[in-house]
Amino acid sequence: METVKSVSDISSDDSPGRNQLNLKLNYESINRIGMDPQSVTRSIRLFVDGEIVTFMQSEGEKIEVRVKAQSNDLAGIDELLSQSITTPSGEQVALRELVHIETGRSRESIRHYNFRRTITLEADIDREKINEVQINNLIKDEWGKIKIDHPNVSLDFSGALDDIQESLDAMLLLFLFGISLIYLLIGTQFKSYFQPLMILVTVPLAFIGVVIGLIITQNPLSLYTMYGIVALTGISVNSAIVLIDAANTRRKAGMNSVHSIFFAARRRVVPILITSFTTIAGLLSLALGLGGNSLLWGPVASAIMWGLAVSTLMTLFVIPLLYKTFSR
Q1: CA angle 66, 68, 74 (to 5 degrees)
Q2: What's the pTM?
Q3: Mean predicted lDDT score pLDDT of the chain
Q4: Is the dihedral of CA 218, 220, 221, 224 positive or negative?
Q5: DSSP secondary structure string, 149-174?
Q6: What is the dihedral sign for C-alpha 227, 229, 233, 234?
Q7: How confident is the model at residue 21 (pLDDT cuts 50, 70, 90)?
Q8: Cα–Cα distance between 217 and 199 in angstroms, integer?
Q9: Following DSSP, what letter does each residue of 171-202 receive, concatenated?
Q10: Would the pLDDT of 222 be above 60?
Q11: Are 264 and 246 in contact (CB under 8 A)?
Q12: Maximal CA-CA distance, the chain
């Protein structure tokens, strides 16, 4: 990450702590003198911290009763390693002969996630040059090159990318729920299984408008643009509902499917255009940032405006063709 110029303020919680002494049992020496490794471990504990053998209650407080080896204050590591341990044969053996000694720096804190030790790495990025998805993909690519050398290490991506993924999952669920609810409402009103599907064709038409708008405005497909797309789902179907409802009314009056849909298109084109364009006019200033650019609501308004404009115009051509083709 340090080689990427768009990344700055890299930090982690893997900070060094105080000096520490690691003692590992020398099983060869312990077995040679006939001692139990557990007794050596217990002796070391008695030399340093002692061992809790019981508890007492005093004035409502729990007090630990700790047994510790009787020795002079240990001024340093050499004094600890010089402490004698009695073998089963009665001989005295220095602790240094029964352990392997390692010195080093401890960690300031040891954190765990799902019972595994973790190190959290954080950094800031220049969003004008790179975004969260790109930098995480870059990390994944570099990690794939060295992953085989670290079999016990795995990466877990969180932070902004995790929030984005959760938002996308939630939006997909809301989008499917909205589509299902629209289908049920229209199907109940029109008493038809197929006509709601014809009306929902306007949803992908609106998506086409959003793509055209992103290309023209050179805006990225951001999370807030996705919010606008979800909101556009319920707006884009209005023109098709008005058109098909007018056509069904004329068919009940005795017209055939061709005459009824063209009559409906001719009679409803002005109300449809006025309704859509007044909505677009209301969003225009926010989408263009005439009163100041808004990173939150600007992409939402732009997505709704472009999607509604294209879906409205295409609805006047696509829906009559579908109605004529599939209505008998």
Answers
A1: 135
A2: 0.55
A3: 82
A4: negative
A5: G-TT------THHHHHHHHHHHHHHH
A6: positive
A7: confident
A8: 28
A9: HHHHHHHHHHHHHHHHHHHHT-SSHHHHHHTH
A10: yes
A11: yes
A12: 115
pLDDT tens for 106-165 read 776 777 777 788 888 788 877 777 777 777 788 888 888 888 888 888 887 766 667 777
Tell me, what DSSP letter sits at residue 33? Answer: T
> By percentage, how much of the chain surpasses pLDDT 70?
93
Residues in the chain: 328
Q: Do residues 5 and 125 make contact, with C-beta atoms less than 8 angstroms apart?
A: no
- Residue 286: strand, helix, or coil: helix
CATH number belonging to domain 161-326 = 1.20.1640.10
Q: How far is CA 113 from CA 118, 150, 171, 190, in A?
A: 6, 18, 28, 54
Measure CA 16 to chain center.
30
Locus of tokens 């058109």: 243
Residue with tokens 């602790």: 95
DSSP helix/strand/coil, 63: strand
Cβ-Cβ contacts under 8 Å for 111 (sequence gap 6 or more): 13, 117, 118, 119, 120
Topology given in CATH for the domain delimited by 27-97: 3.30.2090
- The answer to whether domain 27-97 and domain 161-326 are alike in fold is no
- What would the two tokens of residue 220 be? 């990225």
Q: 172 phi and psi, to 5 degrees?
A: -65, -45
Q: Where are the domains of the chain?
A: 1-17+113-157, 27-97, 161-326
Task: Using alpha carbons, select from 160, 135, 157 the residue that is nearest to residue 6.
Answer: 135
* Cα–Cα distance measured from residue 300 to residue 293, given in angstroms and rounded to the nearest whole number: 12
Is a pLDDT exceeding 60 seen at residue 72? no
Q: Which residues, 6+ apart, have CB-to-CB distance to 82 below 8 Å?
A: 94, 95, 96
**At residue 269, what is the residue type?**
V
Angle of CA points 14, 19, 24, to nearest 5°: 100
